[in-house]
Amino acid sequence: MSKTKEEWKVYNASDKRKEYRRKWREKNRDKINKYQREYFKTYRKRTIDNEILSTAGLGRKYEKIALSVLQGAVDCNADCFHGGYDLVWNNCKIEVKMRNVNKNNRWGFTSKKTCNADYFLLFCVNNDITEKLLLLPREIFGDNLNIGRLCTKYDKFLISQ
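Above: the chain's sequence. Below: its structure in token form.
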């Protein structure tokens, strides 16, 4: 069935795309379901202390490690997540950040504008091994920060585990 010019105007590009995607999903339903099952098995079932290791769960894992590194620190996210900072240690608010090394052999950290931490505890990780652990003041961190694998100007903020 061919469409008239008026019908084609109504049947615009977005409608074509919606119909194409709907047909593709019907045709590839099994492939989609298999992908979702594998994703669930891989990312939602791994747990540490009965906590899901999604992005938030991975951050939570490093918050718990930070508690053991900073003796006497208080966990602010134990009961609920409030988003301002993660730990209080010696009356200082600390935000815990973890990043895996990227393809340029660097770790890129960013901070939300709502974060009101005094310090940032940065876990620089490569294949689940912490290569660097830094405690940086807010003034030096700013809104984002890149740390190289080799000697950097931030190495004076390294702390031992």
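Strands lie at 47-48, 51-52, 74-75, 87-89, 92-100, 106-110, 119-126, 129-137, 144-148.
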